[in-house]
Specification:
Aspartate Aminotransferase, domain 1; globular; seven-stranded mixed sheet; alpha/beta; Aspartate Aminotransferase, domain 2; about 40% helix; 12 strands
């Protein structure tokens, strides 16, 4: 199998699986238990927290483990709105956020909030000034993702963070950094963000574990899940110790090889642009600059994306038609770019990891060329 869908999820290295197995089999005590084994596990969880917090460049005390990026996004948004409930009921975001953000905001609109969605430019970029201009005296929250999960744009979170307090000092800032964490340079502490969401399974960790950074301005964020008071009272529920261990191990492995991995991803992406651009009717959608190195969206204009994905899958090549979360529906991200309908319906996403080779890209390019040459366009 040639796997070119790392933005959906990533392979788990053997060292991560081994670490998780050891915890499942040999370190299974509940961290809240009062006996020695529970105490030892509680200490171990804090050591794993330090590893993840170190990669995010934030104090471990401000990092809480979650079940996934979706939970982190929902928690951050609702905690921000609760904290700023007296500031107002207005939220600023972008039209190209992950559905985890947009669907939470849709719920809040049903509860009386108003939401301003800033549209991207034609190249998918989000202008920081456009975001800041949408902020009002009653704006409780701004939520802008770090890296777009479908087209790879890197958004100006740091610029927004640096200028936001000058526009409205009460407005809080959230960034969904799930696709950017250990893929692009980023510091939670330096970004100015009050909430940062990350997830393990995008960097070689297990599914079912993520983390949320909460900045100093939000002293005691309202829990999304009340209960037994785990995670310093911020996120109740018995800690998923094996997943946390796997998350920390994945972070260790990715950080140890980060410069080499980033250079490899840039080379693989450049190779893909070169080879795919030679295919007739193929259009590169992702921007050349200000983009994450692991995501490349293209359109084989006239050929339905679902058909392309199915054809390549039959040849053992895994790509996606936009986000895996869309499940066959036309992407709101692609729609927001204002592309012609024939282009929109033909967009596929290739995404790369440390394991991706030039041979993988060559095989994908050859398969796309055959798809173009042997099948009539249907759009």
């Amino acid at each position: 199998m040639i796997y070119l869908d790392h933005a959906a999820t990533t392979p788990v290295p053997q060292a991560v699986a081994d670490t998780m197995y050891d915890v499942l089999r040999n370190q299974y005590a509940n961290p809240s238990a009062q006996y020695r084994a529970g105490y030892d596990m509680r200490i171990q969880v804090e050591e794993w927290r330090e590893v993840v917090a170190g990669a995010l460049d934030c104090p471990p005390s401000r990092l809480s483990f979650t079940s996934c990026g979706t939970e982190g996004d929902a928690w951050a948004i609702r905690a921000a709105c609760w904290r700023n409930r007296r500031v107002g009921r207005h939220i600023v975001t972008t039209a190209v956020e992950h559905n985890a953000v947009l669907e939470t905001l849709k719920q809040l609109q049903e509860e009386g909030y108003s939401v301003t969605q800033v549209a991207p430019r034609a190249d998918g970029a989000i202008d920081a000034q456009a975001v800041l201009s949408a902020v009002r005296p009653d704006t409780a929250l701004v939520s802008v993702m770090l890296v777009n999960n479908e087209i790879g744009n890197r958004y100006p979170v740091e610029e927004i963070g640096a200028r936001l307090r000058g526009v409205n000092p009460e407005t809080l800032l959230h960034t969904d950094a799930v696709q950017g964490f250990l893929k692009v340079p980023f510091s939670a502490k330096a970004s100015g963000a009050d909430f940062v969401t990350v997830s393990a399974h995008k960097i070689g960790g297990p599914k079912g574990i993520g983390a949320l950074y909460v900045g100093e301005r939000v002293k005691n964020p309202r829990p999304l899940l009340p209960g037994g008071g785990q995670e310093a009272g911020r996120r109740s529920g018995t800690e998923a110790t094996a997943q946390i261990a796997g998350f920390a191990k994945a972070v260790e492995l990715r950080r140890a090889a980060l410069p080499e991995t980033m250079e490899h991803l840039r080379e693989i992406r450049a190779c893909a642009v070169e080879l795919l651009s030679a295919i007739p009717d193929l259009r590169v959608i992702s921007p050349e600059t200000d983009s994450a190195p692991h995501i490349l969206a293209v359109s084989l204009t006239g050929w339905p994306a679902a058909n392309i994905v199915t054809d390549l899958s039959a040849q053992g090549i895994c790509v996606s038609a936009g986000s895996a979360c869309h499940q066959g529906r036309l992407s709101h991200v692609v729609k927001a770019l204002g592309l012609p309908p024939r282009v929109q319906k033909s967009v596929i996403r290739l995404s790369f990891g440390p394991e991706t080779s030039r041979a993988d890209i060559e095989a994908c390019a050859a398969a796309l060329r055959r798809h173009h040459d042997e099948r009539l366009p249907m759009l």
